[in-house]
Amino acid sequence: MIAFHRDSRAVSIALTHALTLGITTILVGALLLGGGTSLEAETDRTVADSLETTGERLATEVTRADGLGSTDGATEEVTLSVEYPDTVANSRYRVGLVDDCHKIDVALSASEHCLELTATRIDESVYVPLGELDADIDAKGSVRGGAISVVHDGDQLGFENP
Question: Is residue 10 part of a domain?
Answer without folding.
Answer: no
